[in-house]
Design brief:
It is built from eight helices and eleven strands. It has about 270 residues and is of the alpha/beta class. α4 packs across α5.
């Protein structure tokens, strides 16, 4: 089920104000503008593809998301992009895209093993020869959830200029590899705070590589931050993966290949 923060039209309209453009967006925009055809999984409000179109991309841009409320924002902002409601259980492409991306930590919303497998298989099928699938997940070793505390309040204004306050509260620790937290919105537009409950999955590099291999994908490049630094034991905040079809990659990388060393809110997809 899609989390309330993404399926509620009123909250979806606040997404980009809570999650301003950042270094992760710059990273993906460079990839998208260099690719002829792009599929953005979990595209949300479509900001990345909209930016690519504004930057002059004239090829095929397709955004897919299971949250209708997010796609409402995307379609309003840029109708000249293919916006698709659903996921790989409802849509299938064969060799259609040079690049498939999954940004904003959307991969962490795949809570079950079969969800992960079906998404990776779908991405593999969608890739044209020589294509790449690029996604990121928060590095569990960095324990980002320890900073999701009510004292860290994010403040911004809505489209009418009214102040909105948002804070997060994570449960004390992971349950297996899953973390549950609340995201609370408060402001004059609501009679009482709006509380959204979500769960994210934190997979390490070894677990990711196992799922990728099952889907016929191999790691071509892996980074630990948006500056393309190596995945380090420091630990790095992100696990950013560039994958290709397994038979296209002569040597798959794993976290052990690197010996050296999001956005701010937990709601980022």
């Amino acid at each position: 089920m899609v989390d309330r923060v993404f399926r509620d039209v009123e909250l979806a309209a606040l997404y980009e104000r809570l999650n301003p453009w950042g270094s992760g967006d710059d990273f993906y925009l460079e990839l998208v503008t260099a690719a002829g055809s792009v599929l953005d999984l979990g595209c949300g409000t479509g900001r990345l593809l909209r930016a690519a179109r504004e930057a002059g991309h004239r090829g095929r841009l397709t955004g897919m998301d299971p949250a209708a409320a997010m796609l409402v924002q995307a379609r309003r902002a840029e109708p000249d992009i293919e916006w698709v409601l659903g996921d790989f259980t409802t849509h299938r492409w064969e060799g259609a895209f040079d690049l498939v991306v999954m940004t904003g930590h959307a991969f962490q919303e795949l809570l079950g093993d079969e969800q992960v497998r079906s998404t990776l298989r779908g991405a593999r099928r969608a890739l044209a020869d020589g294509g790449q699938f690029v996604f990121e997940t928060r590095n569990p070793a960095a324990r980002a959830w320890e900073r999701w505390t009510p004292d860290r309040v994010y403040e911004f204004t809505d489209e009418d200029g009214a102040p909105v306050r948002v804070w997060h509260e994570a449960e004390p620790d992971l349950v297996g590899d899953r973390m549950t937290f609340t995201e609370t919105y408060a402001g004059a537009r609501w009679e009482q705070p709006q509380v959204c409950r979500s769960t994210l999955r934190f997979l390490d590099a070894d677990a990711l590589d196992g799922f990728l291999g099952e889907a016929g994908l191999a790691v071509a490049e892996r980074y630990g931050d948006w500056g393309r630094g190596p995945l380090a034991p420091a630990p790095s905040p992100e696990i950013i993966t560039v994958a290709t079809a397994a038979d296209q990659s002569s040597e798959a990388c794993s976290s052990s290949d690197f010996s050296a060393g999001s956005r701010t809110t937990s709601s980022s997809r």
